[in-house]
Structures are given as C-alpha cells and as structure tokens.
Amino acid sequence: FHVILPMLKNPGAVIAEQKQQASILFVMVENFDDHARHLGAEKLMEFLNSTFTMMDLICAKHAVTKIETVGEEYVCAVGVVPEDEQEAKDSGHTAVLGRLIQAAAEILAARKPKMGLPVTFKMGMHTGPVVAGVIGQ
C-alpha cells in the first residue's frame, strides 16, 4: 500500500526509495529447463503455480514481502515495508532477518515431488542497502 498510494496519486511518476537495511531472498527452481521439457506448457504452469503458491503462503505466515516471480525465480524480502522498518528500529534487523530465514528453511523443507518430478531449489540472499521502487507502468 505504501507504494500503490503514490502511484495512484501521481500516475507515471518514478517511485524509488532507499532502504538502508533490507534482506532479499532469491529462490530458483533447479533444473527448470528439464521440468519444462518434461511437462509441456499447461502442466508447467500448474507446477509453477503450485510451487509459488506454496511459497506465497509461507511468506505470508512469516510476514515476508513477495517482490516478484520471473520464470522459475521467486523473490521475497524483509525490511522493505514500513512495518519491517519499525520492527528493525525497535528490535534490530536481526529480528526481521530471522523471519526471512524461517521462511527460507520452511520452503526448503516443503520441497517434495510435484507432478512426478523432484523439486530442488537454489537460494541466495542479500542483506544491506537496496533501492526499492516501481519500474514501468
């Protein structure tokens, strides 16, 4: 909501915020090309929907903000919304980061075969300053 309101008030304006301390989790479905060849278009979309919906639910449970999905990659973060910034101010970024780590661990634990295919993930994380914003319309 903190990003959408300025977009509604001033359509077309560039929206950018500097965040001094955020943590971003990148999750990629490993061997995605093999899955794509094996499943076909409709089943591939079902596979991605099932996988990313599971990640959405885990992130919501841990108050982690979903940023985007691109192809086989899921990106989520903490420290980018006002509630996270207040929690970090009150308790330190470690408390906020803990929620992201819990979500990452739960995503890894939830990987089970889907549609007869083994599911494994590659994960990476960045912690530090970021620029958050909206690009495009």
Descriptive notes:
- This protein has 137 residues and is an alpha+beta fold.
- It is 45% helix and 30% strand.
- The chain is built from five helices and four strands; from the N terminus they run H-E-H-H-E-E-H-H-E.
- The chain has a four-stranded antiparallel beta sheet, with helices on one face.
- Strand 2 and strand 3 form a beta hairpin.
- Helix 3 runs antiparallel to helix 5 and helix 4 crosses helix 5.
- It is globular.
- The model has no long low-confidence stretch (mean pLDDT 88).
Categorize the overall geometry.
globular
Mean pLDDT: 88
How far is it from the N-terminal to the C-terminal residue, by CA?
16 Å
Note the beta-strand portion.
Answer: 25-35%
Provide a compact summary of the structure:
It is built from five helices and four strands. The chain has helices spanning 4-9, 32-39, 41-61, 82-91, 93-109; strands at residues 15-29, 65-70, 73-78, 121-134.
Layout: helices, strands, pairs:
Blueprint: H1 4-9, E1 15-29, H2 32-39, H3 41-61, E2 65-70, E3 73-78, H4 82-91, H5 93-109, E4 121-134
Antiparallel strand pairs: 1-3, 1-4, 2-3
Helix pairs in contact: 3-5, 4-5
Which features characterize this protein?
4 strands; single chain; 137 residues; alpha+beta; globular; 4-stranded antiparallel β-sheet
